[in-house]
Amino acid sequence: MVFEAPGSALKLTELQIPESRDGQVRVKVSACAVCRTDLHVNRRAGEPNLPIIPGHEIVGLVDKIGRGVDSLLFSIGARVGIPWPGRTCGSCSYCVDGAENLCDEPGFTGYSLDDRWWLCRDGFTPGMRKPRKFGIYGFGAAAHIAAQVLRHEGHEVYGFTRPGDVEAQAFARKVGATWSGDSTASPPQLLDAAIIFASVGSLVPLALAAIRKGGVVVCGGIYSLHTRRTGARGERCRSNLTRLDANEFLRVASSMEIKMETVEFRLEEALRALREGKLNGAAVLGPGI
Ligand SMILES: [Zn+2]
Ligand SMILES: [Zn+2]
User: Fold this and answer.
1) Alpha-carbon gap, residue 289 to 287, rounded angstroms
2) What separation in Å is there between the alpha carbon of 66 and the centre of ligand 1?
3) Where are the domains of the chain?
């Protein structure tokens, strides 16, 4: 499916199978999840290099290896994941400081990049021993995985959803939340940290009010850029993951059982379901669906 112009429907198009260039591997896609970022990509004018093939939550098998690829990292048939951050410059001050998620010259999969450059084999872990209380704002695909990892590590999860979305609140409790409620509600106790997955800037002050002194609010969505100006203490804009995050997450994920809640969709139906908020878990597209 090709995205040609802002606001236009995606177009089913026959394309040549690409070759892997130097430093790249070619991946045969097994499945691709869809998230709200795709809705933003579909609406925004000007930014992406159109036409593009949208999609940035990809799982597939390596089927060709270009020159210069580290053979210790990739082999034919290896299962790999391809996330939204598709390229970082490696030389700006953020990259040099190990915060490549904030890179000044990033490339994004299925948005500004039409190639899928950045691959991670087989990260999200707070790495904290002491049990903590984590708030999660926006209980969709990412949240339902994060909640299970946090529970696995002995932390408590508090799930915040759109006001009145009792279905999503029940879903949050099903995947391990101790408490769930409206995003405008106060949790029963102050939280140690909160992560905002929903791309809604007005959640930032709500999350800041829900954490204890010295707590941290992490903005996880791409629209966190809009909230950077608040300059609130304790707020961190992650925007993206780093390669280190991905590797760390996969290490934890392989030590536990994560129950994925997925719904298979045809592409247009998936975007509609996301737009209307009628989805628990991850919307997944696969060949032949
Ligand atoms: Zn996404
Ligand atoms: Zn950089």
Assistant:
1) 6
2) 27
3) 25-122+260-285, 133-253
Which residues are within 8 A (CB) of 235 and not within 5 positions of it... i.e. 6 or more apart? 204, 208, 216, 217, 218, 219, 227
> Which residues, in sequence order, are CB contacts of 269 under 8 Å at separation 6+?
none
Q: How far, in Å, from the CA of 95 to the mean position of ligand 1?
A: 22
Say if residue 34's pLDDT is above 50: yes
* Ligand approaching nearest to the C-alpha of 81: 1
114 or 97: whose pLDDT is higher?
97
Query: pTM for the whole thing?
Result: 0.73
CA of 213 to the centre of ligand 1 (A): 31
C-alpha 242 to ligand 2 mean position (Å):
11
Residue 248: C-alpha distances to residues 101, 111, 112, 253, 256 (Å): 15, 25, 26, 9, 13
| Correct CATH for 133-253 of 3.40.50.11420, 3.40.50.720, 3.30.565.10, 3.30.420.310 | 3.40.50.720
What would be the CATH architecture of the domain defined by 25-122+260-285?
Alpha-Beta Complex (3.90)
What ligand is nearest to the CA atom of residue 95?
A: 2
